[in-house]
Structures are given as structure tokens and as C-alpha cells.
Specification:
Elements lengths: L4 H17 L1 H4 L7 H24 L3 H7 L2 H52 L3 H5 L2 H30 L14 H15 L1 H8 L1 H9 L9 H26 L10 H32 L7 H19 L8 H27 L3
Helix pairs in contact: 1-12, 1-13, 3-11, 3-12, 5-7, 5-8, 5-9, 5-11, 5-13, 7-14, 13-14
Length: 350
């Protein structure tokens, strides 16, 4: 399939927007423990949505999976299990740092690991760095890291200015040190999603041979990765249900309020899955030579949109002009990095 970088970047923007928005409906869930709405969200995000879409877009999906080598399925699911741990800690990073800073720190490390490790492992990093297009892409990656660092600096400023969580009226549990530790862990483990897609390429090839459109070939890989992620998250949430005695949250309460909580949690799950759906298509449209840069583009868009949500929810209310300027500069730097990576892909020879 002929690469279409501009369309690929647009698809990544849609995926980034979906990823940055998934926590918004979860913030509206009322009187449910975190593990309850996270598990309901996970059922929608990692089981119902991916399998439904894959069954529609992949002819003979079960035959494709049964025809895949066991070691390919196992490795792909293993990366999904590790990614699932990253997803758990990612939710905590948003809880402790807020949407803006939590996304920036976690996804910064996720971007760095997920972008550079695959070509480094394949021995292609030197080859990529030797071409003008590859140099521009790598410069965009470095610029992206700079933008993330600026956002992190804004978080440091913010902690010094807002020592009490009630001061800005957000009601969040802002804890910089704890949040950074969790976010770094989340970022490194969440990069395993990119490794899972790389490990699952033989599955995607079988899906394409079975008649799946190239644009949707990664949907068959997603069901394997996300199944691994669901197992990790489900086990942890159920353990918390037992520890906190929160099973009653699933059934107790006014019917209208319960229905609202289930719908909000499921909505968050569908939005979460949307990022993977568009990411898979965006990667395909960027072409195989520089598909590693998809991860950087995806992460940058997530951070951009999450910071916009952070501004909408007044997470920076009560901070100084210096801090708000720092946030704006960080977002602008991320936009520039995305443009640089996109130009590098556009200049790449077919």
C-alpha cells in the first residue's frame, strides 16, 4: 500500500484525541470505587470494542488467530500483559498529577521507549539516522522530549504554588513525587503496546491474506494485545474489590444513578479503544520504513489534547503567569515536534 503520511498523521490525531479524552467521562462517575469503574471501562475497552471491530473488519478472524504461530501469539499477549500494568499505573498517574501533567510525564517516557527501542532492536537506527528524512524524524523526537520536559517543569512550578489541593478547587490528589514515580513506571511499561504490535506483525499479515483491508489489518493483533492487558487489569481490580469490599458498588444504589455510572464507564472504554483503532490505521498509512515514528506522533497528540483538557478543567487555576506560560510553551513545542516528524515521513522515499 502506498504510504500517505498526511492521512496517517490525521488518523493519529484522532487517536490522540480519543486517548486524551477517555478519562473525562470517568471523572463524572459518582460514588463508585476506582477499581469498579476501571474494570467496567476495561471490559468495554479491551474486550467488547476490539473483538466487535475485529470481527467486522477481519474475515475468518478465529481462523487467522488459530493459524498464527503459538510463539507469536504468546509474545504478543505477553507484551499486552506488561502494557496492562502500565495502564494501571497510568490511571494512578492521572490521579496524582492531574490530566495535563500526568499524561505529559507518563507518555513522555512511553514515547521515548516505544519509538527508539524497536528500530534499535532491529539494528535500523543507524540506517535511519543516515538519511535526511530520518534525521528530521529523530530531531522531532528530541524536540518532543523537550516539550515534555517543559510540561514537567510547569508541574514543578505548580506544586510550589499550590500546596493545598483545595486551593485550586479541582479536588484532585496532587502529589508530585509519588505521581512522577508512578508516571515513569506507567510510561515505560505502556511502551510495551508498541512492542506488541511489532511482535504481532505475522498475525496482521495473515489477516491481510485472509481478505482484511490493509488499513484494518492491525485489528486482529489488537484483540491479542488487549486481551493480555485486560487480564492484568481485571485481576488487580478484583483483588481491590475484595480488599476494599467494593463489590456492592456494582449493584447498590438508585437504578438511574447505576445506569449512568455504567454508561459513563463504558463510554470511557470506547474512547480508550478508539486510540488503538486509529493508531493501527495511522501506522499503516505512514508506511513500514518509518512506522516507528508513529509512536512519537501518537504520544505528542495525546499530550497536546490532554493539556487542553487540563486547561478546560482549570487544573492550572491559581498558578502564576510563569507557570501557565510554561505549559503553553510545552504544548507549542510538542506541536512543532509533530510537524517535524510528519515532514520527515513525508520526505521519506517510497
Amino acid at each position: 500500500m502506498t504510504p500517505q503520511p498526511l492521512l496517517g498523521i490525521f488518523l493519529h490525531a484522532l487517536g490522540g484525541s480519543a486517548s486524551a479524552s477517555f478519562y473525562v467521562p470517568l471523572k463524572k462517575v459518582d460514588k463508585w470505587a476506582w477499581e469498579c469503574f476501571w474494570l467496567v471501562m476495561g471490559v468495554a475497552a479491551w474486550l467488547i470494542a476490539p473483538w466487535g471491530v475485529a470481527l467486522i473488519t477481519t474475515p475468518d478472524l478465529f481462523q487467522v488467530l488459530c493459524s498464527s504461530k503459538p510463539e507469536v501469539l504468546g509474545l504478543t499477549m505477553l507484551f499486552g500483559l506488561f502494557w496492562g500494568v502500565g495502564g494501571l499505573t497510568f490511571g494512578l498517574s492521572v490521579r496524582y498529577l492531574g490530566m495535563a501533567l500526568g499524561y505529559a510525564v507518563a507518555l513522555g517516557f512511553c514515547m521515548l521507549v516505544g519509538t527508539l527501542v524497536p528500530p534499535l532492536h532491529e539494528g535500523r537506527l543507524g540506517e535511519i539516522a543516515a538519511t535526511p528524512s530520518g534525521q528530521m524524524i529523530l530531531a522531532g523526537v528530541v524536540t518532543c522530549m523537550g516539550g515534555i520536559a517543559i510540561c514537567g517543569l510547569a508541574g514543578v512550578y505548580r506544586e510550589g504554588e499550590l500546596t493545598d489541593r483545595q486551593e485550586n478547587g479541582t479536588g484532585e490528589e496532587f502529589a508530585l513525587t509519588k505521581g512522577f514515580a508512578v508516571a515513569i513506571t506507567a510510561g515505560i511499561l505502556s511502551a510495551c503496546f508498541a512492542f506488541g504490535l511489532a511482535a504481532g506483525k505475522p498475525i496482521a499479515e495473515l489477516a491481510k491474506n485472509a481478505g482484511a483491508e490493509p488499513l484494518y489489518q492491525n485489528n486482529s493483533v489488537l484483540v491479542v494485545i488487549l486481551l493480555g492487558g485486560f487480564i492484568t487489569n481485571a485481576v488487580w481490580c478484583l483483588l481491590l474489590n475484595v480488599k476494599n469490599r467494593s463489590f456492592r458498588d456494582y449493584v447498590q444504589g438508585a437504578p438511574g444513578k447505576q445506569l449512568q455510572n455504567y454508561l459513563l464507564s463504558a463510554m470511557g472504554g470506547v474512547l480508550w479503544y478508539g486510540q488503538f483503532f486509529f493508531y493501527g490505521m495511522g501506522t499503516t498509512k505512514l508506511g513500514e520504513k518509518y512506522d516507528f515514528s508513529s509512536w512519537s506522533i501518537h504520544m505528542a497528540f495525546i499530550i497536546i489534547f490532554s493539556n487542553l483538557w487540563g486547561l478546560y478543567f482549570h487544573e492550572w487555576r491559581g498558578t502564576s503567569r510563569r507557570t501557565r506560560t510554561c505549559v503553553g510553551l510545552g504544548i507549542l513545542t510538542l506541536i512543532v515536534s509533530t510537524i517535524a516528524i510528519g515532514c520527515g515521513n513525508y520526505l521519506a522515499p517510497e
